[in-house]
Design a protein that fits this description.
globular
Length: about 160
């Protein structure tokens, strides 16, 4: 009989190795350096197109992995595949994308690289991730309140 703890251990090891690989890729590509990201977004100045190749590589790897996942019933280490339930482009998606882009441009970091920069222990990384977590939490509470209000309005006579 197999060890009942083998799958959770394999899952944890797989997640850890995936995280290390992802973090190393972010560091090697320069995605953890706000100046590199801001240089990529500076079309009118000293534009640095190198991150375009990083994004292109990430999209290519994801496209292959996603295609493989469509033919599988479940992930290799258990669990379920979580795919987006919503597929329409609406105002909420566009507004969220715009806010993400503005934050990325101003801060020079997006969530993945921001978490990696925490290893450096800089005040700016701690502040960025702290505000990111707080704003994500607040947005969740506001959306929950809106859903509850809409639910009450739809059930009242």
């Amino acid at each position: 009989m197999s060890d009942p703890h083998a799958r959770p251990i394999a899952t944890a090891v797989g997640a850890g190795l995936g995280g290390l690989l992802f973090g190393a890729g972010l560091v090697i590509s320069g995605m953890t350096m706000p100046s590199k990201v801001q240089g990529f977004l500076d079309f009118a100045g000293a534009w640095d197109p190198s991150l375009m190749f990083v994004m292109g590589g990430a999209i290519a790897v994801h496209a292959v992995a996603y295609r493989i996942s469509l033919g599988r019933g479940a992930p290799l280490l258990g669990g379920v595949f979580r795919r987006p339930a919503l597929t329409k482009i609406d105002l909420r998606l566009l507004a969220g994308s715009a806010l993400f882009g503005v934050g990325w441009g101003l801060g020079g970091l997006c969530p993945g690289p921001a978490v990696v920069t925490l290893a450096g222990g800089t005040a700016s990384a701690l502040l960025f991730v702290g505000v990111m977590i707080a704003s994500s939490w607040l947005t969740g509470r506001l959306l929950d309140a809106r859903r509850a209000r809409n639910s009450l309005e739809s059930t009242s006579p």
